[in-house]
Amino acid sequence: MKYKDYYSILGVERGASADDIKKAYRKLAHQYHPDVSKDPQGEEKFKEVAEAYETLKNPEKRAAYDQLGTHRPGEDFQPPPDWGGQFRDSGYSFDEADLADLFASLSGRHRGGPGGGQFRMAGEDYEVTAHISLEDAYRGTEVELNLSVPEPDEKGQLRRVPRTFKVRIPKGAADGQRLRLAGRGGKGLNGGRDGDLYINVALHPHPLFRVSGHDLYLDLPLAPWEAVLGASVEVPTLGGAVRLKVPPNTPAGKHLRLAGRGMPKPGGTSGDLFAIAQVAVPTAASERERDLFRQLAESSTFNPRGFFKSEVKT
Amino acid sequence: MKSEHTEAVWLTEDTQFSLAQLAELAGIPESEVRELVDYGAVTPVDPESSPWIFNGKCLLTIRTASRLRVSFDLEPHGVALIVSLLERIHDLEAQLGSLRAQFPQRR
Questions:
Q1: What is the 3-state secondary structure (H, E, C) of A158-177?
Q2: Residue B50 forms contact with A (CB below 8 Å)
Q3: How far is A261 from chain B (nearest CA, A)?
Q4: Which of A79, A198, A228, B65 is buried most deeply by CB count within 10 Å?
C-alpha cells in the first residue's frame, strides 16, 4: 500500500489541533474546490485535500492513521501487525489497497466495505471532462474516457479499478455543456440506484473559428480593392468551403452573416457564421503596385480622419 | 478493463425533472431542494404550478450546491448565496467569451 502524508497535504504539524486542521482544510478547499477555483489542477488537488481531511477530522480515523507510523509519501508500506483487526480477520490484502478506500471502509460508510451493513445506498456519481475539437463537436463524436473508480471486489472490499467509457457525444456540443449518462456511475448497494456519469464538454480553441454559443466568428481579410469594389471570396466553414459575396464599400469590422453555417442546435437548426471583414495591406508591394497606390492617393479626395476636427473643440 | 457504450443526454433547459427526481439525482432530501428554491438558488419552470418541474440546468446547480454544502459545511442560505454568485460569474464569463469571439483577432 502506498503511503500518503495527510498532515503535509494539509500543511499542518502531526500534533495539530482539530481546529487547526479544520482551518487548514477550509483555506485549501477555498483555493482548490473545483466549483470555485480557476486552477486547472484544482480538482486533483482538492481530492487530495478532501481525502486527508476526511480522515484527520474524525478522531478515531486520525488515531488509526497515526498508528500507521510515518513514511515517505508514495512509499510502499504495511500497517503494523496489530492494526485493523477487522481487515486482517477477513483476509484483506493491503498490497493493492488505496489508503482513501481503506479509511472509507473503516468507517463502514462506503458501500461494499467491511461493516457496510444492509442499508440501501445509491451508487457514486462520476464526473469527467471530455476535451474535443470544434470539428468533432460540429459532427458529433465518440470519445473514450478513462476513470479510476472504487469498486467492491468479490470479498466486498473496495479497490480502485480502471474503467473505460465509450461515450457518443451528439453533434452541436457547446463549450461547458453537460451530458448525463444515467446509471453509468458506481453500482448501488442493497437495491440503491446506480450512480450517474456526468460529462463536462470542453472545446479546444480553433485556429480560425471563435465560438459564441452556437454562432461562429471568423476573421475575413480583404485586399483594399476587394473591400472597395466588392468581391466573391471563398470562406471556410465546418461543413466545407462556401462562396461569400462581399458587397462594395465594405468597411473593416463589418459582420457578414452566413446564415445556418454555425454549430448545429438540438432542435435541428444551426447557429450562424459571421465573417468579420478586415482590410489587409500588402506588406511587400511591388514597385508597380506602389505606383498605382500613388496615383490613387493623388486623385482621391477620401479623408478617413475627416471626423476628427468636428469631434474635438479647441 | 471494462468498456461500456452509452448514449448521453444533454442537460439543458429542455430536459425536465420532478422535485423527487432532482432530489434523488443530487443525493439530497427533497426538503433541502425546497430550501434552495425558497432562498432563490434554483427556480422551478413555473413556481406557481404544482407539482414543481425543474430543467436540466437546475440539476447541475443543485449538485453544485450539495457539493459546496458538504465541502464547506455551509447553511442552506450561505449555499444559495454562493450558488447565485457563481451563476452570475458564469453568465458574465459567457458574455465576455461571446464579446471576445466577436472582436477581430488578426492584426
A1: EEEEEEEEEEEECCCCCCCC
A2: no
A3: 16
A4: B65
Supply the range of the domain harboring residue A161.
120-205
Is A227 strand, coil or helix? Answer: helix
Is A262 found in the same domain as A177? no
Mean pLDDT split into 10-residue runs, chain A, 314 residues: 91 95 94 88 90 92 88 81 66 71 65 54 88 96 88 74 89 90 86 90 95 95 97 97 97 96 90 96 92 95 90 80
Residue where one domain finishes, among candidates A185, A205, A225: A205
| Inter-residue contact A213 to A110 (CB < 8 Å) | no
At residue A310, what are phi and psi to the nearest 5 degrees? -70, -20
Same domain, A221 and A296: yes
Distance from CA of B92 to the nearest CA of A (A): 13
In a domain, residue A55? The reply is no
Residue ending a domain, among A183, A205, A227, is A205
The pLDDT tens digits of the residues spanning B69-107 come to 989 989 889 999 999 999 999 999 999 999 999 988 765
Residues in chain B closer than 8 A to A182 (CB atoms): 9
